[in-house]
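TASK: fixed-backbone design
INPUT:
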């Protein structure tokens, strides 16, 4: 073997090692981002369930003072059921719109009852609901940040040429379709 053949073989081996290292690194990075997005989605569902678990207690507290507001209670119950049945970001966004509207209506009813506003149980539920809403917002930001990183890594060149063949697809952001419904959180401070 002459010296030029060794150089060609050395260059080919070096290219194979570089390409193999790049593919290995890219694949592992995508797996990590995918797991991070799954974890973030799990955090969102935990917080949505926590809020849904607070709703029956909130309804009971308000119902004791405003039993005649049955339509409001039905709407909140429907929104709660919808929240518990979400299967992805699009479903969660629609459910979030309905939940925000339902919570605003129940707190509008509560404003008409000063005794309810002074109730220790109701005030505690309000505090827990505010805390949960803050956690939902934080979880949504974390999830959307992970989705942004994953989607960017999938779309950049040269990754876009081969990552879909490895089973990686872009993920959906958790965006509320009616931004006016969440522009102002439900008023729970009296």
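OUTPUT:
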């Amino acid at each position: 073997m002459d010296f030029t053949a060794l150089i060609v073989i050395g260059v080919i081996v070096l290219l194979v090692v570089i390409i193999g290292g790049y593919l290995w690194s890219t694949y592992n990075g995508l797996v990590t981002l995918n797991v991070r997005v799954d974890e973030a989605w799990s955090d969102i569902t935990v917080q949505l369930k926590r809020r849904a678990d607070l709703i029956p207690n909130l309804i009971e507290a308000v119902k004791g003072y405003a039993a005649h507001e049955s339509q409001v209670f039905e709407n909140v119950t429907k929104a709660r059921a919808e929240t518990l049945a979400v299967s992805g970001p699009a479903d969660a966004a629609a459910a979030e719109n309905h939940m925000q509207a339902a919570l605003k209506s129940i707190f509008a009813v509560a404003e008409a009852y000063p005794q309810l506003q002074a109730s220790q149980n109701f005030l505690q539920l309000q505090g827990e609901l505010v805390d949960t809403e803050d956690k939902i917002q934080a979880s949504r930001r974390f999830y959307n940040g992970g989705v942004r990183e994953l989607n960017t890594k999938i779309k950049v060149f040269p990754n876009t040429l081969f990552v879909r063949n490895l089973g990686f697809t872009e993920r959906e952001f958790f965006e509320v379709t009616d931004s006016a419904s969440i522009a102002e959180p439900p008023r729970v401070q009296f």
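COMMENT: The longest helix spans residues 3-63.
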